[in-house]
Amino acid sequence: MENTDVLIIGAGPAGAVAAAGLLNQGKRVTILEKEVFPRFVIGESLLPRCNDILQKVGLHKAIEKCNFMKKGGAVFFRGETREQFNFTETSHGGWDYSYQVPRSDFDKALADAAQEKGADIRYKKEVTGVEFNDDGAIINYQDTGNQKQERIKAKFVLDGSGYGRVLPKLLDLNTPSDLEFRVSLFTHIKNDRRPPDYDEGYIWIVTLPQGGWIWVIPFSNGTTSVGVVALPEVINQAEGTDDDAKLKSLLLQEPSLKKRLSEMEFTMPSKKIEGYSIGIKKLCGDRYILLGNATEFLDPVFSSGVTLAVESAYKAQEVVGKFLNGENVDIQKDYADYLSGGVNCFRQYVKAWYTGELQWLFFYKNKPASIKDRICSVLAGYAWDKSNSYVTDPGSALLAALETLPKEARFNVAGPS
Ligand SMILES: Cc1cc2nc3c(=O)[nH]c(=O)nc-3n(C[C@H](O)[C@H](O)[C@H](O)COP(=O)(O)OP(=O)(O)OC[C@H]3O[C@@H](n4cnc5c(N)ncnc54)[C@H](O)[C@@H]3O)c2cc1C
After folding, report:
1. Which of 27, 97, 313, 321 has the fewest CB atoms in 10 Å of its CB?
2. Based on the domain organization, do 207 and 306 belong to the same domain?
3. Which of 34, 121, 165 to mutate for ligand 1's pocket (most ligand atoms within 8 Å of CB)?
4. 416: pLDDT confidence band, cut at 50, 70 and 90?
5. In terms of domains, do 131 and 33 share one?
6. Which residue from 101, 124, 149, 306 has its CB within 8 A of the most atoms of ligand 1, so it is best to mutate?
7. pTM of the model
8. Of 139-148, 217-226, 362-371, the least confident
9. Three-class SS of 148-213
10. Are 163 and 61 members of one domain?
């Protein structure tokens, strides 16, 4: 039977980064990807931490060449009130920009660069089963065109299958999320009249008075990604008879977006994802590691998905390289415990966002710079920086910050607390 050192399921950012790192260590890597690239996927606003990882594995140059829109930070709106977070003002330092990327282009650029490094990427190959044994695993897959069944042996399996969640499904690892069931409705538009008095590349996050929020992500090709995230009833009760009309009415109800989006035209029918948050029982076994979205997915509000995907992939390739070299590794401690630190940090921010407390802090103008720049570090993806108390103990740090807020900074936020 054919064999390889590491079999990676999925050629998204997690799969490509893990492959590049393993190839740098001289390992043989095969990626099975069920789609043909370029393919659409949501998750288009990146965080500066991604640059560190892409640079470490030698993929950053491939992305620099793509002329993606540079993202200098995020602007949050609540009605007419706005607050800006700049990546130049983080306590961590590091990269002061990231990118806004149509994922079809970004993922293809990464996968092509990994292929150039030597990754054996096989498109239209869907993994259907994995049998683990003492030496590794036998992976069953089929050609999505002619349904031909094939098998390959690997010493280790990395699951970067994202929403496919191949190993979590096969090994019964999925658990319900402790976050609320939310819906996202989104599309790409043209005729986005980007205001000249704002920094063009920033993501806009606009809160909805009825609960939920909107994203506006500008691309360098002139199109813009727009979407709304909310409880199902907010979407159902929006004006309009179909998803396109509902999305339009939610976008145009907001004072901060009315002018900017007044002439927008959808370039594709709106898409809907429901109940995207999901938990996981464990992140690794003796011969496998779960990466990126195949682990736990929280919520897109802080654009942390791709950052978690590449961070997990980077850590995983380090651990697997050592394992294959016969070094003593504790996969649970060196991989799962490490990764969980950052995920747990983002979890607390997501929860505090939806209870409203984080929004009080965000929109309060007179917060000390020392609070803002440490929160901004987390928003830049530096969620594993142990020198930041907003990372190591976000619960206590946020609580202490909230205690400094005057009463008038505490507004009601719609939705479950
Ligand atoms: C509404 C919404 C908005 C979001 N916005 C953002 C954002 O602004 N910024 C951000 O960073 N993240 C965002 N995310 C999260 C982001 O989409 C993911 O975190 C990110 O795509 C994860 O990357 P990945 O490499 O783990 O998986 P993916 O990018 O999903 O790649 C997985 C790959 O595996 C392949 N695959 C699946 N099953 C199989 C199989 N059986 N065999 C072979 N191949 C398979 C798929 O075809 C796919 O190419 C958002 C998510 C949602 C739901």
Report:
1. 97
2. no
3. 34
4. confident
5. yes
6. 306
7. 0.97
8. 362-371
9. CEEEEEEEEEEECCHHHCHHHHHCCCEEECCCCCCEEEEEEEECCCCCCCCCCCCEEEEECCCCCE
10. yes
